[in-house]
Sequence to fold (470 residues):
Amino acid sequence: MLTLNPNSPLPLVGQIVDGLRGLIAGQSLKPGAKLPSIRAFAAAHGVSVFTVVEAYDRLVAQGWLVSRANAGFFVRRRSGEPPAASPAPKPVAELRFDAQWYLKQIFENRNLALKPGCGWLPHDWLFEDGVRRSLRQMAADGAELGGYGLPHGHMALRILVAESLAERQIAVSAEQVLLTQGSSQALDLVARRLLKPGDAVLVDDPGYPNLMFMLRFLGARLIGVPRTPAGYDLPALEALLAEHKPRAFFTQPRLQSPTSSVTPLAQLFRLLQLADAHDLTLVENDIYADMDPEPRASLASLDALRRVVHVGSYSKTISPNIRVGYVVARPDLLDELAQLKMVSGLTSSDITERLAFGALTEGRWRKHLKSLRDRLAESHGRVAQRLAGMGFELFSEPKAGLYLWARHPDLPDGAELSRHAVGEGIMLGPGQLFLVEPRPTGWLRFNVAFSDDERLYRFLAAQIRLHEAA
Fold:
């Protein structure tokens, strides 16, 4: 029916999903046709039953197959329109590059062949094996699947988070840890607790599009703090504090998105001094800490959570489908955040929190992180060399984290370049998405884990030649 390649960078589950979807779309598998049983498919293609189960389940969820009790899996009879979960790529002219593009269209276009502009890791770089082992262990232990979790989250995982933070010199108890559905919910809870419509709030510029969109939705007035290769533009920051009197500063000192720059220790101390002087709350988004091979001080470790709220996540390094993040803060503020969490969405998922705990404690987590950091460092070196060799200016070369921030003098508009890239099956990260005040810019965010592909460089070289010819 289809051929699988065990040496392909695309996981076997993805190969099965893409292959069967192609056969259905091409009418090689007609509506109503019965697929081989899970065991028959696994035996015919030399893969595990678990692989086939996951692939079939994905195709059911995407609307390509239907499962019938005691009968098997069948190609779904459809009305003629493509399924909502897998829309046809939009024409290039229809793509928008505004503040909502990152939240919406970047996920709609995940079917593009190359994704150097995305914000996640490839499947085979994640800790999916750890998740599967944790899932099997939960099933073997007869874990309770009904009911709600605890308001603050699964206690064993909260204890583990507190222990992990202690290794980074952030002294907290498990009672000061609130588990959330990823870092996005953590940031949303903090923003809704700290801000009211019309309040001025500082953010990194360039910075995190999801955060900026969420703050604007809450009615906050965004003030961009210029990011430099060496951290913050401190004179600009001091002037903005005096002029706008912001309530909070949402920032990523470590391996910041999109630049992967790192704020030095001296600047962290100065930022804390400014926070005291201006009655400012610092919201430290540290979601890339596990990708950092260097032990570094954080705002939370230096401040003991007096003025700092610290946010972290396991979604980037375990799996994006495991939506487990956390926020730590002083006890009175954390209790208010927990109450807000309950009001807005009750508890977070105890099942996913148990899955994350099992993955983190099954014995291979530290080895996984070491391998991940090494792979990122190697990719940083190769991608930086290729881009620099083509004439790109690199904002910084951190050799850690997900991103390189770069621009080419002959490619002045990243949004225009990204429109052309979509037509070639390539998802880029145009710089204007990451600016507080979007404007044409040549800066691009490259995810190094997805940028080690000759097709990307052939496209960029062709675009440079076209610009030179024009």
Notes: The longest helix spans residues 365-389. The chain has three domains: 12-75, 92-119+367-469, 130-361. The chain has a mean pLDDT of 87.
